[in-house]
Amino acid sequence: MSARDIDWDGVRLHVVTGKGGTGKTTVAAALALALAAGGKKVLLVEVEGRQGIAQVFDTPPLPYEERKIAVAPGGGDVYALAVDPEEAMLEYVEMFYGMRRAGKALNKIGLVDFATTIAPGLRDVLVTGKTSEAVRRRDKSGRRVYDAVVMDAPPTGRITRFLNVTSEVAGLARIGPVKNHADLVRGVVASPETAVHFVTLLEEMPVQETLDGVESLRAANLPVGGIFINMVRPELLPKTALDAAAKNSFDPAELALGLKAAGLADGPADASAIAEALAAEIAEHARRTSLERRERRALARAKSPRYDLPLLTDGADLAGLHELAQAIRAQGAA
Questions:
Q1: Distance between CA atoms of 154 and 24, rounded to whole angstroms?
Q2: Rg for the chain (alpha carbons), in Å?
Q3: 231: closest CA among 8, 7, 30, 14?
Q4: Whole-angstrom Cα distance, residue 125 to residue 179?
Q5: Which Pfam families does the UniProt entry name for this protein (predicted)?
Q6: How does DSSP classify residue 17?
Q7: Which CA distances in Å does 323 have to 31, 45, 156, 249?
Q8: Is the pLDDT of residue 11 over 60?
Q9: What does the pLDDT look like over 193-223, one tens digit per residue?
Q10: Counting beta carbons within 10 angstroms of the beta carbon of residue 42, is it exposed (0 to 12), middle (13 to 18) or buried (19 or more)?
């Protein structure tokens, strides 16, 4: 695979969303590792205040500063930032009004809570604005500071509203710094440099939320990325056996004979008992496989690239993240 033979060449902001429980943060972390491989520099941003990134990488809670947390294969670096809306508000006040000291004083009496109460959506503008600034940032030589930015975003149910910052602040200001700031954010989020990826499981509710999320983003003219199918379990039996079990035509007696012939049972009664237990497991595996195939067909309706990520039997530790990152790169997603 060449350096440019990837699905998201040219994308610099990767927004990762998904229904709770699908492994959204884990996939965002693995994507950051995959993008950083080969000497790149990637920023992984958390915007919900859960310290999920710190948990995934098994590090202390992240401060409101960009900090290196991992080395990718080939020498790339992954930095992380946990965006704090209060600190982002202070930066905003200083940037546009030169009032950081006053902002600190106001913050002590609940500046952020007050501002976001009278201006719904402003909190989202602040955290997405910090991410957008990292995407645009350049060093003194004019080079991009980060090759890519990955955002561990809110869940699928509110991702469109979270990203659609222009409409969120439309009633707040039609001119001035707030409007300009929102327009800058929208200029990044709605551009071809951004892709919103979905994380799902092969289960009915996460799949339906993914399809609804894709439709909602497209209706808002926001850029839909790929679909990461997480925790994929392999089909352990041939299709003929699975089809027979699904139709209740699998014969445990044949399995018992096979167990006896292979010397895996002490006698007819033992072979029969083992065969009955195995037949029940096979039937359950066949049922689950049938459901997963159905959900795959449903996901195809989204007409977005899909990537399978394996179930990590040993958990999502650092080794597991590298395994997922390798799978992401092998499928051309990074």
A1: 9
A2: 24
A3: 30
A4: 10
A5: ArsA_ATPase
A6: E
A7: 11, 21, 25, 38
A8: yes
A9: 999 999 999 999 999 999 999 999 999 999 9
A10: buried
Written as one letter, the residue type at 258 is G
Domain ranges of the chain: 13-233+311-329, 239-289
What is the predicted pLDDT for the residue at 257? Answer: 81
DSSP 233: P
Measured CA to CA in angstroms, residue 202 lies from 229, 244, 323 at distances of 7, 22, 20
Q: Could you give the CA distance from residue 231 to residue 315 in angstroms, rounded to a whole number?
A: 11
Distance CA 125, CA 184 (A): 10
Q: Which amino acid is at 163?
A: L
Do 55 and 191 contact (CB within 8 A), yes or no?
no
Q: Record the tokens describing residue 90, joined without a space.
A: 């202070």
Q: Is the dihedral of CA 216, 219, 222, 225 positive or negative?
A: positive
Strand partners, 81: 45
Residue 289: exposure state from Cβ atoms within 10 A (0-12, 13-18, ≥19): buried
Which residue matches tokens 């030589």? 141
Confirm or reject CATH 3.30.200.20 for domain 13-233+311-329, answering yes or no.
no
Mean pLDDT, to the nearest integer, of 184-189?
85
Question: Tell me, what's the pLDDT at 167?
Answer: 61
What are the φ/ψ torsions at residue 333 (nearest 5 degrees)?
Answer: -85, -15
Residue with tokens 């990074």: 334
Q: What's the mean pLDDT in 272-281?
A: 84
Q: How far apart are CA 283 and CA 38, in angstroms?
A: 45
Measured between alpha carbons, how far is 248 from 77 in angstroms, rounded to an integer?
A: 52
Q: Is 54 helix (H, G, I), strand (E, B) or coil?
A: helix
Q: What is the pLDDT of residues 105-150, one digit of tens each?
A: 455 545 555 455 545 566 777 778 889 989 999 999 999 999 999 9
Q: Which residue has the tokens 């999502």?
A: 316
Q: Are 141 and 5 in contact (CB under 8 A)?
A: no
